[in-house]
Amino acid sequence: MESLNPNQQPFPSSKTTSRSQTSPHGHSPTRPRLNLKSDPQPHASPEILAPTPRRHLLESSESQHWLRTPPLSPSSSRGVSPVSLFSSASLERRIRTTSYYSTRPSSASLRSLFDSDKARELTGNGRKHEASEKQGVEMSMGRMWVRWMHKRNMKGWVAPALVAISTLLKWCIGLGSYSGEATPPLFGDYEAQRHWMELTVHLHTSQWYTYDLEYWGLDYPPLTAYVSWICGKIGYWINPAWVALDASRGIETSESKVFMRATVLAWDLLIYVPALLMFVKTWQASRSNRTQNLSLLTLLFQPALLLIDFGHFQYNSVMLGLTILALNFFAQGQDVLGAVCFVFSLGFKQMSLYYAPAIGSYLLSKCIYLGPKAGWRLFVRLAIVTTASFVLLFLPFLPPFAPFEAILQPIKRIFPFARGLFEDKVANFWCASNVVFKWKRWASTAVLVKLSTVFTLLAFLPGVFILIRTAIKTSVGATSDTSVSVDSTHSPTLPLLPYALLTSAMSFFLFSFQVHEKTILLPLLPLTLLLCGAPAGSAMFGWGVLVNNIAVFSMWPLLKRDGLGLQYIVTVLLWNKLIGYDPRRLPSKSFVQLLSFAVYGAAGLLHLAEFILPVPSRYPDIFPVLNVLITTPVFILAWLWSIKNGIEVGWALGGLGQARKATSTAPAPAPARTGNSLTEATVRRGVTRAASLGFSNGRRRAPTASSASSSGRPGTATNMGT
Amino acid sequence: MLLYPTYRSTDFEVHRNWLAITHSLPISEWYYDVTSEWTLDYPPFFAYFEKVLSIPAYFIDPRIVDLKNLNYDAWSVVAYQRTTVIITELVLGAVLVRFIRNSVDTPSQRIVSASLFLHPGFLIVDHIHFQYNGFMFGILLWSILMAREGRKLASGIIFAVLLNFKHIYMYLAPAYFVFLLRSFCISPSGQVQIKNFLSLANAVIAVFLLSLGPFVLLGQVPQLLSRLFPFTRGLNHAYWPPNFWALVTAADRVLLRYITRTGANVVVNVAGVSSTSRGLVGDTIFAVVPTVLPIHTFAITIGFQTIILVKLWMNPTYKSFLTALTLCGYASFLFGWHVHEKAVLLVLVPLSLLAAERQAYFRTYILASVAGIFSLFPLIFTPAESVVKIIYSAIWLAFIYKSLSHQVYEFPKSLSYVFIDTFEKLYLLGFPILLAFVSLFPLVVQHRSTSSACTTSQNPAECQEPNPSANASRLEQMEFLPLMLTSVYCALGLVWGFCRLTFIYMKNESTYQGQMNRI
Question: How much is the pTM?
């Protein structure tokens, strides 16, 4: 990595606006050959930009490192350069391609690289095209499209177009059937949501959690009720029959279906999509425009959420969107706002409690990091704001407006411990181990509740522990150095947050009480956030897509019941095609690759068996059970993997904190200060890189301020590497 | 495509019935069968095509091809038929890829090809409404491709085959005829090349023999022709297609209203007053304007086509041919007798190939596409699918516009150009407003009707029933106002587009900016 510092761009940034077939660079084939292995001689050829001074690995590739991605993705807006192309590939491949580059007139091969989507049509250049394919130019459909748009000078249109196309896709999924269509008397989730609209519109708040509980009583926190109330009001205005009290039960006219689908889409567009847009802007601020677009594409077309929200019918995107908003605010350093968003997320569905350990310990770690004084101040502020927003949410159920006992009713409804350990076949630990060990026969419900709580606690503790430990290690209070200005907006533990979220959500999913198969969406969210910036072919990418696909597979019994088989196939294939996923391209013979092959093989076989064989009468549940047995190990491995990654990142951060103490007395050499040899572009890039772990204000800060403040940050204090 | 479970029009049942006819009946009865009201009215090749399709259908679900099993819409038949549309559309895709391969300006050709493959017209008509247009246009484009590559004999044969698939392509036949005759059978110096002529004639006759042969032997040609050309139908189709006659009909309505208001002394056709042509299948009778007969429409169409063809005869190049082809289709669409609104695709598809050429063509293309696609919207009237069609078309249009407009932009040359430019922009701006009106109008009507007399009925369908309330009956008259407005507004744009294109073609088609300059 170090000898191949990818910041050293061999080629100038080339916005290849050349749609006529001239050479993208326009210079002669006598261009100096590249020698990637040796220490680059930056001034040897005119088109190599002045290099960024060599820094320590951790410094030169901040956020990308934590997110397990190379600093320059193949889709960098700087055009495809050979170095960045192979930054993720193995060393031998680099050497091979180096020889490739040095043995051919480079303008021709470059052209085939630049236009590898056009290469097919460059007649007579079949050989060239083959060559470029051999190098593993991984061009997914989405990537090709994003690139094409950028070349066509339609950069600004990518995000709107993506949103529009995904909206169209969502609506098309919504044309299919939904949960519980035409299955009286209780129907399904669709009817539940519709029933809540009718409930909230017609009844006083005191009756919301008590009215006819047998028929889809409200069992989500108040924000869901408020949202239902708004939708219900609009529905009532358009056609009162859709939400008539009691009379409208099981209404299935096509107009009402359109209306219900429209409400989901509207909330999704109002909360989830803006949250994603903001996410790529804040968490990937140091990445190129193209990478941001690609991440957005990955996130918008994630099949699991599409199928559950727009096919099965639920409003998960609201809860997830609020959580993402909270993460965005954390990344921007606005912890209080983030905490409010997370409380709202909790107030929409209690399921986001799965995230609570991670978020809570992150905020705590931030307080610890800030040191005793500022930390306590932040802690108190957070406590007050969080409590206040909870109170605000539950206001109609609190004493001045309702008797004191009223508050108990929603809480009883929200946490149904009276139900069993698991209902359907869920791919979690309890259900999978139930095959050999009949939990329900061995222990009473009360014991099982306690048992599952203990298991869950144990399972998410590693994530929490790493966060707190890193915070203590890097805490500002731990050093007596007051000369460096403390960057109070950014916590060094932020890169740990997605891993911690994944660990905690996965542990809840695997070990907690009363889990639905749909709740896999919660662990999927941080995983997809991690995945979206990773280059195709990396281990992170492999894990992310594998778990995503398997999660959709684990919901297959549910989707089959809903009649969403077609949508299941289409969305999964489309998403994988768009992001260019191919398990064969993963790091060869790695654990992920072998696991993927095994799991996909098993899943494929199961699908085939289910299609061909009749259900044996002795084991009516044989297929769902097999499904659970295939998917649970994957989820458990993903959970372990997240802990491992968390430990790695935490170790690096914590270790760095220690080292910093040792070297803190040394004068911090200012980065990026080699005088006149620096071009404007390099300075700018250096600044974006230096922004703390790639978060928001890297773009905004002025160069000097950045270098000062970044040297104050523990992670980037000195360039120890050189 | 996720559109399997969408709304299916009557055309869906039509095609299912044809599958059944061709499968279960001997060839001699194909054009005589009247079990269903949807009789086979496409030329023989299409019947053969359905026969081929019906073979796998039988294995999937035998009830698909059961002739008596009318209005069968189980999941199996839906999935099967929709899949066949998607698979046959691959012909279109393949041809468009070929188009890219040897083109002069590859990037713009790629955009044009992509725009054709993803055309909203195909989405609406084929994938939701249900027809096999993608397949047919694939053949048409193949034929055009052959013409581009100079293989004129192949081009002629393929077009003849296409004619035997769907006779609506007759609209384009004159341009083909003149082009092939002039450039293939007559050498540039003016000598007739007998050999070429004979080979072309023989090939075309052979194609027709192959298709019609069995029916000639059975002596069923008159019956076949009467099925293919039903002149008993009216001037306008179910609702007015956006052509010249829509404008005439609208003018007639307006005049009638004016006359009844002012009591002017004009002879009014009584039959016409009652026939308000509210969108029902049947004859349109004008109240004020003289009644139009089929012969008149023919005369006008042929008149316009002759002008264009003379020009083509003088200048038989590929690009000239393409424009003439478009204009022929255009003229037939605008002035023909009983035109389907779906036939607008006949104009839009060849026009697309011209779009990347110059600003003038591009402008015409945008105008005609917007108007044409908008006029297809009423084909799909269920709310769930309307959202699809609107979003999809908007995305498509944005892409085409953004990617092509900056390539072909030309500064307006004189003041009149500026005026025209402004008017066209205003016209295009009118579409979102019209769309809002059309989609909100039923809501308003419904609200009023629910608030007034018909309190029990919840949807407009029930309100259409004869209602004692005067208010409701007035609303009932208004029922077709959005449809009428749509056709008239689109017709305006399309007629203007036609004038524009004709003007360009006749005036100065020698300067091309795009790739055609080099062909």
Answer: 0.73
